[in-house]
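Narrative of activities, Objective 1.

The group set out to show that a structural description can be obtained from nothing but a protein's sequence at a throughput compatible with the screening campaign. Below is one input-output pair from the validation batch, recorded exactly as produced.
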Amino acid sequence: MKKITTLSAIVTLGLTLCGQLQAETLTVGTNPQGSLFYSMGTALSKVMVKETDKQYRVSPYAGSSTYIPMINAGRLAFGFANGGEAAFAHQGIKNFDQRPNGNLRLVGVAISTQTSFAVATDSEIKSIADLKGKRLGSGYNSGRTFHYYSNAALSTSGMSIDDVKKVPVPNFVKAIGALAEGRIDAALVPMNVGVGKKAMATMDNGWRYLSLDNSEQAQQLVNENLPSARIVSVSPSDNKTGVKEDPTHMIEVDFYVITGAHISDDTVYELVKSMVAHKESLGKAFGAFKRFDPKKMAQSNPVPFHPGAIRAYKEMGIWSS
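Output recorded for this entry:
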């Protein structure tokens, strides 16, 4: 009897360990809590844990320039990046100068989002041109892509970050906090990001977006400063925090789910197919995912797509390469 009991215990332990091995844990790198990427990563992980046999876990970092190299080195499974930053990272240019991340791969576009400079509602600043000589966040050492956002937006009025009073900030979250506290005059605020809504509530009269120039030359300059970026027109509505002017011209960029070459084809394939199958659940988990459009997941970019994603897109009939 004792031998049977011991054997039973060994079998039970073996099954438990087997189950733990099968429940693969995949870590998703994001920006800090309160950021758009953190909210997206949390929602994606929540839905994937429920709908797959894998454990997805969010791990926030100071910025994407921190976690992208970790994905490239095989230390993280997934993350998020806008199209321009992904290209910089893969090629080893701009904020990734001489540090190419050749193992970086695209999973697909999760959402597109709009961004512009925001100022206090009662500010005398009415246009991008009015930002000349004003206090703006700069540096963005933990989220360098916002340096290129800054130059892209400022370029529409013939300026760069060198034409303003630069106030060092580590990332855009801190910059928005500085705007709320009156330490800078304008900050880049991604549409409906949580920290932006918090600033709206804590500032006496809230804040409003500045509208960019929408000329053909401005479009070209924005794309030169931030590849894959474009200028779009946004109209005020209850679900577009800070949009006052009609229309308000803003920078729009595709935000990709990214991964590394070390992740298996089957895992990436499963992620793509699960995102598509559970689009509604993603939207319920985080409102920004209501803009997720499976038909636009395979947007072209200098960074190669992961083979697992390509297999899914061919099945979906949206792979054109």
